[in-house]
TrEMBL record:
It comes from Sphingomonas baiyangensis. GO terms for molecular function: transferase activity. Keywords: Transferase. It holds the Pfam family GST_N. The lineage of its organism: Bacteria, Pseudomonadati, Pseudomonadota, Alphaproteobacteria, Sphingomonadales. Belongs to the GST superfamily. This is Glutathione S-transferase family protein. InterPro entries: Glutathione-S-Trfase_C-like, Glutathione-S-Trfase_C_sf, Glutathione_S-Trfase, Glutathione_S-Trfase_N, Thioredoxin-like_sf. PANTHER family: DISULFIDE-BOND OXIDOREDUCTASE YFCG, GLUTATHIONE S-TRANSFERASE-RELATED. Residues 1-80 form the GST N-terminal domain. Residues 84-212 form the GST C-terminal domain. PROSITE patterns: GST_CTER, GST_NTER.
Length: 232
């Protein structure tokens, strides 16, 4: 049976959606990052980077949400376009765009606004700008093609779905989705799928720590409490 290591953050939710779309039997294993379970020896043996999600499928051990999506999609031949070089190129390009652009810039946008020890204007401005710029590219793509890779729902749409629900919170703007009508359309469509409801339902399986107290901050952002680097 597949073992899926998760919490309710955007990246694990992409994988939860795909597992539910496929109807695969899996064991959902919570990793409570606010109490530091991601730093445990047992989890680092699965993911040396100490991040969720991770997945074990027989002898295959995977980490990074987009790698997991691509592995499962290729294995089961579901939610990927045809094998033509053109469509494969689009799939890989947009999946990596989400992995290296949308996710990191959105995450840093939140970090520097809410969790950095100093609320410095420049990084807040930079990451807000870059997060919006990346989301605008996604919105423009959806306006052209309906889905991220042509006319069919794919793992790239699942990757977008994992992050897009948090756009208003990430950008500190409750009306932010007004800027991205095509993303809003995609979210409404995916949210209406039974698999999306089942994916979100995994939250009921475990009571994760909710408080952002000092323990949580130390486990999520240890650099805040580390000594300043020595100069020279």
């Amino acid at each position: 049976m597949i073992r899926f290591f998760y919490n309710m953050a955007p990246n694990p939710m992409k994988v939860a959606l795909f597992l539910e779309e496929l109807g695969l039997e899996y064991e959902a294993i919570p990793v409570d990052t606010k109490i530091g379970e991601q730093h445990s020896e047992w989890f680092r043996a699965i993911n040396p980077n100490g991040k969720v999600p991770a997945l074990i499928d027989g002898e295959a051990v995977l980490f990074d949400s987009n790698a997991i999506l691509l592995y499962l999609a290729d294995k089961h031949r579901k939610f990927v376009p045809d094998d033509s070089p053109q469509m494969r190129a689009q799939l890989l390009s947009w999946l990596m765009f989400v992995a290296t652009g949308v996710g990191p810039y959105s995450g840093q946008c939140v970090h520097f606004r809410l969790f950095a020890p100093e609320r410095l204007p420049y990084p807040i401005k930079r990451y807000d700008y870059e997060a919006r710029r990346h989301w605008r590219i996604v919105d423009e793509r959806l306006a052209q093609t309906g889905y991220m890779v042509g006319a069919d729902y794919s793992i790239v749409d699942m990757a977008v779905w994992g992050w897009a629900a948090r756009i208003p919170a990430m950008l500190a703007d409750e009306n932010a989705m007004d800027e991205f009508p095509n993303i809003a359309r995609l979210m409404k469509e995916v949210d209406a799928r039974p698999a999306a409801a089942r994916a979100r339902d995994i939250e009921r399986r475990h009571s994760f720590k909710s408080e952002f107290d000092e323990q949580a901050m130390r486990n999520l952002y240890p650099q805040i409490f580390s000594p300043e680097p020595r100069q020279g």
